[in-house]
Design brief:
It contains 13 helices and 6 strands. By secondary structure, the protein is α/β, with parallel strands linked by helices. It has a single domain, classed as P-loop containing nucleotide triphosphate hydrolases (Rossmann fold), CATH 3.40.50.300. About 35% of the residues are buried. Bound molecules: 3'-phosphate-adenosine-5'-phosphate sulfate. 3'-phosphate-adenosine-5'-phosphate sulfate binds near residues 41 and 49.
Length: about 280
């Protein structure tokens, strides 16, 4: 996958909309404000679902905003040229998303009171989701088989680098007051409670019918049908016609794809890399 990539500090980035100069500027000079809200993920962890949910919380469940402005403008990716330019101009509290590993994140964040949500997902499902997604992308070297992508993923030769390093890096923030860890799995299994948790963290109060509307409009089906959120606007330029962001939206899909040997290799690697972290962080177990 990294054949077509832009490299910065040993991490590969997609070839489109990223540059080492910009990544350096983002890290050194982007000013995170105390009132900003940051949504952080490793790619394919449910980023867009989290963004949609937070946007709907901000609009008190009113779907007008999420149905009229593309998701990448509502909550721009700070590390992309497009997102960085937009964010620099934005007045007031901003929603910001990012896939950056902790060591490349804007330094100003670590001195700010800005709130950050880190969304984690079973890396096995991240792997499978990524395999299908990158197969239709025009800006990375496409995997030819799941077997090949599995190798790339476990070696950390995928965009934004090693999942293990990413998760470990950000989890080191877990005791900070302005940092919330959520998992895709808890969002799936108890969406309502997770939305309530997000509201509490962000200091937002929703009426019951507003909360119901957040849930309805951020559902897999609603997002799949929303052209402002489903990436269909990017087809042709960035993705093949068959590419889809909202593929299945389930937990445990890896079981349909991993061989027994791959499952064992992954378990062993996970154990080696993550054994010293509290295991209750990994809800899929
Ligand atoms: S990206 O390209 O890295 O920003 O992708 P990301 O949004 O992080 O992850 C895409 C996966 O999230 C699933 N998804 C959802 N699941 C449940 N409910 C909702 N509303 C939802 N929205 C997105 C999406 O289907 C991708 O997972 P897979 O397993 O491929 O279906």
């Amino acid at each position: 996958m990294t054949g077509k990539c832009v490299w910065f500090e040993g991490i590969p980035f997609p070839s489109l909309d990223y540059s080492p100069e910009l990544l350096r500027e983002v890290q050194e000079s982007f000013l995170v404000k105390d009132e900003d809200v940051l949504l952080l993920t490793f790619p394919k962890s449910g980023t867009n679902w989290l963004i949609e949910t937070v946007c709907l919380i901000y609009s008190k469940g009113d779907p007008k905003w999420v149905q009229s402005e593309p998701i990448w403008d509502r909550c721009p990716w700070v590390e992309t040229k497009h997102g960085y330019e937009l964010l620099k101009e934005k007045e007031g509290p901003r929603l910001i998303s990012s896939h950056l590993p902790i060591q490349l994140f804007p330094k100003s964040f670590f001195k700010s009171k800005a709130k950050m949500i880190y969304l984690i997902r079973n890396p096995r499902d991240v792997l499978v989701s990524g395999y299908f997604f990158w197969r239709s992308a025009k800006f990375v070297k496409r995997p030819q088989s799941l077997e090949q992508y599995f190798e790339w993923f476990v070696e950390g030769n995928v965009v934004f680098g090693s999942w293990f390093d990413h998760a470990r890096g950000w989890m080191s923030m877990r005791d900070k007051e302005n940092f919330l860890i959520l998992s895709y799995e808890e969002m799936k299994w108890d969406t309502r409670s997770t939305v309530e948790k997000i509201c509490q963290f962000l200091g937002k109060k929703l009426e019951p019918e507003e909360l119901n509307s957040v849930l309805k409009n951020s559902s897999f089906q609603a997002m799949k049908e929303n052209s402002m959120s489903n990436y269909s606007l990017l087809k042709g330029q960035y993705f093949e016609e068959n590419g889809q962001l909202l593929r299945k939206g389930v937990t445990g899909d890896w079981r349909n794809y991993f061989t027994v040997a791959q499952a064992e290799t992954f378990d062993k690697l996970f154990q080696e890399k993550m054994a010293d972290l509290p295991q209750d962080l990994f809800l899929w177990k």
